[in-house]
């Protein structure tokens, strides 16, 4: 389970450390930093896929996403416009589980001599034991081009001249003497994100799809029917029936296969024939997509939902919350929402964000010392 998340220098997040629970609900007003936290998690997941640099370049490079306020924040309320930075530009992301953690520090190239102007560099990476990257717990350390692993009898070098865009997770995950790297990469790759599942008229979930078993919902929801049918065949038919009955009393889900292609349909009270996927309302489809994401045969390490309540009427929130709570009994779930009603239904650990002087903070915290411990390795 992921126990702690740390972000520094990303969009409105100057410095934030939050502890996570099996079910964590992140709420806050518009502009408080919920999406920033969500995107920071996605960037961490990108580290596991070896595409963090490309992702940052894709959104305009480090300059476009780094914290635009002063380094020390504005706790005293003094004017900050026109002040200059003294420290290096740094975007830092970190995550800790009960056994192992990972922290990455990204910065700008020292002297730019390349056409790839937007590419940031990986300055440091640390894999560590415990919930905080303190020096004593560091297992693998990468500083600029040099990487080393801690063995029983001291440090052993992994590399001396790593490229600034290469991650230790990619380069050395196969090394038997650095098994933590493979474990960390697997952990990051096991996260699933569901954001803006498409429900518009042309949504892939409304089209018939090849009938083949599907253990996880595609990012665009295209294999919705196959995921639901797979769940039924794996013995979750009662859970699925309950999900449909909770949201649409009297209705029954149908998953017809025609010429090897499968779609979703809903038998509804008062209708002479089941309504087919193109006829379902946006909210109905959104609910079925989220149900599929929660019931899918493959249980990921972490499911992250960004505003799952989108296009759902308030009446459906209790049913949605029930699906999420069920999933959270088997998988860790983090929900980002600005609907207080959904947050209340969900329960779990509530993290309320607020923006103070342009900076994202956790509501109720007295000050910087009032957050879980996290010691970023010094550059
Ligand atoms: N580089 C940056 N530095 C400082 N603040 C930034 C930067 N980029 C964006 N912001 C601000 O961060 C704030 C938080 O944005 P975010 O999208 O995370 O909000 P949100 O909580 O998801 O809001 P909503 O509920 O409207 O989606 C916004 O007010 C935005 O203007
Ligand atoms: Mg948002």
From TrEMBL:
Q: Which InterPro entries match?
A: ATPase_AAA_core (IPR003959), P-loop_NTPase (IPR027417), RecF-like (IPR014555)
Q: Calcium: present as a keyword of the record?
A: no
Q: What is the superkingdom listed in this entry's lineage?
A: Bacteria
Q: Name one GO molecular function term.
A: ATP binding
Pfam families in UniProt: AAA_21
What keywords appear on the UniProt entry? DNA damage, SOS response
Which residue intervals define the domain ATPase AAA-type core in the entry?
A: 23-343
GO BP annotation list: DNA synthesis involved in DNA repair; double-strand break repair; SOS response
Q: Where is this region: Disordered?
A: 360-379
Checking PANTHER family in the record gives: DNA REPLICATION AND REPAIR PROTEIN RECF, SLR1056 PROTEIN
What this protein is called in its record is AAA family ATPase
Q: What species does this protein belong to?
A: Agrococcus sediminis
Q: What is the lineage of its organism?
A: Bacteria, Bacillati, Actinomycetota, Actinomycetes, Micrococcales
């Amino acid at each position: 389970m992921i126990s702690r998340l740390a972000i520094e220098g990303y969009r409105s997040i100057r410095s934030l450390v939050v502890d996570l629970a099996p079910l964590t609900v992140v709420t806050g007003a518009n502009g408080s930093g919920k999406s920033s936290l969500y995107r920071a998690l996605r960037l961490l997941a990108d580290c596991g896929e070896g595409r963090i640099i490309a992702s940052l370049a894709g959104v305009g490079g480090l300059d476009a996403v780094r914290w635009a306020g002063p380094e020390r924040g504005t706790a005293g309320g003094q004017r900050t416009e026109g002040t200059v930075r003294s420290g290096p530009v740094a975007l830092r992301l970190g995550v800790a589980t009960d056994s192992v953690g990972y922290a990455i520090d990204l910065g700008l190239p020292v002297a730019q001599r390349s056409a790839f102007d937007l590419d940031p560099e990986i300055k440091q990476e640390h894999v560590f034991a415990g919930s905080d990257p303190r020096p004593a717990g560091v297992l693998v350390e990468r500083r600029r081009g040099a990487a080393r692993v801690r063995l029983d009898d001291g440090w052993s070098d992994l590399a001396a001249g790593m490229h600034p865009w290469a991650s230790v997770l990619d380069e050395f995950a196969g090394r038997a003497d650095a098994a933590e790297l493979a474990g960390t990469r697997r952990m990051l790759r096991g996260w699933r994100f569901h954001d803006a599942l498409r429900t518009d008229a042309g949504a892939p979930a409304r089209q018939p799809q090849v009938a083949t078993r599907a253990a996880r919902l595609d990012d665009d929801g295209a294999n919705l029917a196959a995921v639901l049918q797979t769940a039924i065949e794996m013995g979750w038919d009662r859970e699925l029936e309950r999900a449909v009955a909770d949201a649409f009393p009297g209705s029954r889900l149908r998953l017809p296969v025609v010429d090897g292609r499968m779609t979703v349909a809903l038998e509804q009270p008062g209708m002479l024939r089941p309504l087919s996927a193109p006829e379902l309302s946006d909210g109905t489809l959104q609910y079925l997509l989220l149900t599929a994401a929660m019931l899918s045969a493959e249980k990921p390490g972490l499911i992250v939902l960004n505003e799952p309540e989108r296009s759902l009427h308030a009446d459906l929130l209790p049913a949605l919350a029930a699906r999420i709570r069920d999933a959270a009994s088997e998988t860790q779930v983090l929900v980002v929402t600005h609907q207080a009603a959904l947050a209340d239904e969900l329960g779990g650990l509530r993290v309320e964000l607020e923006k103070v002087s342009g900076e994202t903070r956790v509501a109720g915290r007295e000050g910087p010392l009032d957050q879980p411990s996290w010691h970023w390795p010094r550059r």
